[in-house]
Amino acid sequence: MNERKMKRVKVRGKHVILSFVCLVLGFMISFSYQFTKQEAANGNGKPTERQWTKEYEYRNNLIEQEEKNRELQKELVEKQEKVREIEEELAKGEQEKIYFNLVEDVEKLRMYVGDVRVKGQGIQVTLSDSSYVPTGEDVNNYIVHESHLFKVINELYISGAQAVSINGKRLSHDSYIYCNGPVVTVDGNPYPAPFVIAGIGNPDVLIPALNINGGVIDQLLQDNIVIKVEKKSEIVMEPLLQTNE
Questions:
Q1: Residue 118's pLDDT is what?
Q2: Domain boundaries, the chain
Q3: Which CATH superfamily is domain 120-237 in?
Q4: Surface-to-core class of residue 198, CB atoms within 10 Å of its CB (0-12 exposed, 13-18 middle, 19+ buried)
Q5: Apex CA 161: angle with CA 109 and CA 182, to 5°?
Q6: CA neighbours closer than 13 Å in the CB half-sphere of residue 204
Q7: pLDDT (0 to 100) of residue 244
Q8: Rounded CA gap, 163 and 74, in Å?
């Protein structure tokens, strides 16, 4: 009997402890649930004052950045407009420069073909036959030929001569020169020696070009040609195509 009573007491004691543990555990679960619910309401429900402050700051920063972007965009458009205006001015200047260069080129071409009157400083080169022909020598080796004229004319043009004439006959882009017996024919007009070649240009450039060692003058001297070079302050050449009024 005593043993049964003792077992019952032990069983009741265990039930009491177990009930107490369950009570505490239930209380803890309930408290945790209520606390979690309140935190969730504070976090996902109505925003806290701190969250309102942060959102307000973020919104103000965003508005300020958008305003700055609009100002920068406006400034960019103004700069682009100024660039276009500058480009247009440069284009006009380039066009004027191009037109000026074209007019200048046309004027030079007119000089070369002989369409306009030309006046300026230059040089005059006189080529004469040799006054002495040794006995038994070929006379042709001591007279001026068209090849000698070509050497002088080509050197003058290469050195920058604006216009060239032979015995007063102005040359053009389609002029022709050839020997015809004792005379040289220039564009169908026969001219006897001496041959006076005039070139309008800078004398300080034309004369040294002819006097280069081994150049035109040295070659002509080797061919027994008499040469005379003069500097002229003014040479005038009339247009090739003239109209009589």
A1: 87
A2: 51-113, 120-237
A3: Protein of unknown function DUF881 (3.30.70.1880)
A4: buried
A5: 105
A6: 0
A7: 41
A8: 60
User: What tokens appear for 46 in the block?
Assistant: 């109505």
Is 114 within 8 Å of 240 (Cβ atoms)? yes
Look at residues 124, 133, 137 and name the one whose alpha carbon lies nearest to residue 225: 133
Predicted local distance difference test score (pLDDT) of residue 31: 60
Cα first-last separation, the chain: 169
Show Cβ contacts of residue 176 under 8 Å, excluding neighbours closer than 6 positions.
Answer: 186, 187
Token pair for 223:
């061919």
Please tell me which residue, 133 or 208, carries the higher pLDDT value: 208
Report the distance separating Cα 56 and Cα 64, nearest Å: 12
Q: What is the pLDDT of residue 148?
A: 93
pLDDT digit string (tens) for 174-231? 888 988 877 899 988 899 899 999 999 999 999 999 999 999 999 999 999 999 999 9
CA distance 196 to 167: 5
SS3 of residue 80 by DSSP: helix
In degrees, rounded to 5, the angle at the alpha carbon of residue 146 between the alpha carbons of residues 140 and 148 is 80
Pairing verdict, β 226-237 and 163-166: unpaired
Dig out the tokens for 28 from the structure: 């803890």
